Amino acid sequence: DSVDVDFRVESNGNANMLFVDGGNNRVAIGETAPLGTLHVRSSDASITSVNANSDDLILENNGNCGITIASSTTGEGMICFSDSGDTNIGRIQYQHDNNQMNFRTNDSERMRILQDGSNNGRIYINADDPSSNSYLTVSGNNNTHVMITTNDTSTSGGAAMRFKVNSSTVGQ
Predict the structure, then answer these.
(1) Phi and psi based region of residue 99 (left: phi greater than 0; alpha: psi -120 to 50; beta: remaining)
(2) Is the dihedral of CA 76, 80, 86, 87 positive or negative?
(3) For residues 108 and 126, is the Cβ–Cβ distance under 8 A?
């Protein structure tokens, strides 16, 4: 009957292990005043508000804070983004069987990070050329594929990019 009733479950160490705020349609774990739809607090980080556009899930910890997505050694871990027109419009995906991370936007892979057979990191942006010997491959359809700018206003004329071979500068 839409009655504003709060609900609380205690544990041995936390008086508010699970708290349902009936009046504000929010749930908390380890928190008495949830700041979003689901607020998980393992320790007090002294936050009093969060961005209203990203308050569906709040993780709070006074130290390090994170999310673990655990899957099998041959599975995939993903964060997917969808909308009413596409259930796979964006995605961050880790493939455990070949240890590569993929990033998708507008339902297409845009970047891939992986390691080669020599355990060297490789990055492909809008490209897929595992046979190349490059560690960074960028592909595109316009004239500017990579732009590097610097805001160095000193008179020393700092380099926006420096090229080295065996610790010796060969260009900049």
Answers:
(1) left
(2) positive
(3) no
**Looking up tokens 């002294």, which residue turns up?**
46
Q: Hey, how many other C-beta atoms are within 10 angstroms of the C-beta on 10? A: 11
Distance CA 150, CA 81 (A): 33
Residue 53, SS3 per DSSP: helix
The token pair at 7 is: 């609900």
pLDDT in tens, 54-74: 999 999 999 999 999 999 999
List, for residues 124-154, the tens digit of each pLDDT value: 888 766 566 778 887 777 676 677 777 766 6
Q: Are 61 and 44 within 8 A, CB to CB?
A: no
**DSSP line for 90-137:** EEEEEETTTTEEEEEETTEEEEEEEE-TTS-EEEEES---TTS--SEE
Nearest to 116 by CA among 135, 102, 138: 135
Do residues 70 and 60 touch, judged by C-beta distance below 8 A?
no
Q: What is the DSSP letter of 164?
A: E
